[in-house]
Design brief:
Layout (H helix, E strand, L loop, with lengths): L7 E12 L2 E13 L4 E5 L6 H8 L8 E9 L2 E2 L5 H7 L4 E4 L3 H4 L6 H12 L5 H14 L5 H4 L9 H12 L6 E5 L7 H18 L2 E6 L2 H7 L2 E6 L2 E7 H6 L4 H7 L48 E2 L5 E2 L17 E2 L5 E2 L6
Parallel strand pairs: 3-8, 3-9, 6-7, 7-8
Antiparallel strand pairs: 1-2, 1-4, 4-5, 9-10, 10-12, 11-12, 13-14
Helix pairs in contact: 4-5, 5-7
Pfam families: ABC_tran, oligo_HPY
Enzyme class: translocase
Protein name: Nickel import system ATP-binding protein NikD
């Protein structure tokens, strides 16, 4: 039955790790939704908590030392209270993961075909080995591996990096998942192969009618694949909106700084000055305040500012959008490295 309810709803998601130096809070009370059939991108610098957030959804975070709290509802079911057996029916089944480095994710002692066949028979025990091999060939064809039937008995080291990632995507599609969580799946690939993989994911999304949670540090990738964007920094959400709102009306200083790091922009060479704060001892107030050009005294006290709505789909966590402040002070034109200026960056 079709419904307008989001496929995934995350509320107050917090993930902590016990360390010798204290409690490390990698994800600190974040909220977001993934509509059915759409792509949501979690974006931010390395260390922002994106990967931990994506792994917390299906509880693949090691416990201990990790501890996940908050609410994760998938198709109306609360995931955080499921038993391990209940969770296994969803994890790897209706929710599938593909990871950043296929070199590490594939077992180099077994052929690619053996690994896909094992995945098929794990989820469908009644399927014969021959039927599973036929399914493996279909999947490799779907993800664009040439001569799929002939390549089935090749080992991972006989595939290029881009081909390995296609194999990982094929394995994720074994169960025809409703949600695909893709964690930096193109980072280790060159630009041409990266574009091929992104186009492939778009085609497969339409074919399989999947939702996608795409984790990346690269806003350039976001522009080509996202419907909605959630900008994370130091475990918190700084801004959220449609891809058009984020690129045409970037409103948090951190989002704007990320855009200025894109090729052709002012910070493309040097990046954002400063470093992320310690997740064990984060600063008071806005997490980005120590690196922000627009920070005022109120930015460095209390908790992370509440998200202020700019539209039905666009919100920003910044004191400059609260009553009594002037948001235009943080929305100066973004300067390109050729001296031109723009309010945002086109998402086309």
């Amino acid at each position: 039955m079709m419904t307008d309810e989001p496929l995934l709803t995350v509320e107050g998601l917090t993930t902590e790790f016990t360390t010798d130096k204290g409690t490390l809070v990698a994800v600190d009370g974040i909220d977001f939704e993934i509509p059915r059939g759409e792509t949501v991108c979690l974006v931010g610098e390395s260390g922002s908590g994106k990967t931990v957030a994506s792994e917390s959804i299906t509880r693949i975070v090691p416990t201990p030392p990790g501890e996940v709290s908050g609410s994760v509802k998938f198709d109306g079911q609360e995931v955080t209270t499921m038993s391990e057996s209940e969770l296994e029916e969803i994890r790897g089944g209706r929710i599938a993961h593909i990871f950043q480095n296929p070199q590490d994710a594939l077992n180099h002692c077994y052929t690619v075909g053996w690994q896909i066949v094992e995945a098929v028979q794990t989820h469908e025990p009644d399927v014969s080995k021959q039927e599973a091999r036929e399914r493996a060939v279909e999947l490799l064809n779907d993800v664009g591996v040439a001569n799929a039937a002939a390549r089935l008995d090749d080992y991972p080291h006989e595939f290029s990096g881009g081909q390995k990632q296609r194999v990982m995507i094929a394995m994720a599609l074994v169960t025809n998942p409703d949600l695909l969580i893709a964690d930096e799946p193109t980072t280790a690939l060159d630009v041409t192969v990266q574009a091929q993989i992104l186009n492939l994911l778009e085609d497969l999304q339409e074919e399989y009618n999947m939702s996608i949670l795409f984790v990346t540090h690269d806003l350039g990738v976001v522009a080509g694949i996202a419907d909605h964007v959630v900008v994370m920094y130091a475990g918190k959400v700084m801004e959220r909106g449609t891809v058009t709102e984020i690129f045409e009306d970037p409103s948090h200083p951190y989002t704007r700084a990320l855009l200025e790091c894109l090729p052709g922009q002012a910070r493309a060479a040097e990046g954002i000055p400063g470093t992320l704060p310690s997740p064990i001892n984060p600063p008071d107030g806005c997490r980005f305040a120590p690196r922000c050009d627009y920070a005022v005294e109120e930015c460095t006290a209390g908790e992370q500012p509440p998200e202020e709505p700019l539209s039905d789909t666009h919100a920003v966590s910044c004191v400059h959008y609260q009553q009594g402040y002037d948001p235009s002070t943080v929305k100066e034109e973004i300067v390109q490295d050729d001296g031109a200026t723009t309010g945002g960056v086109t998402s086309d």
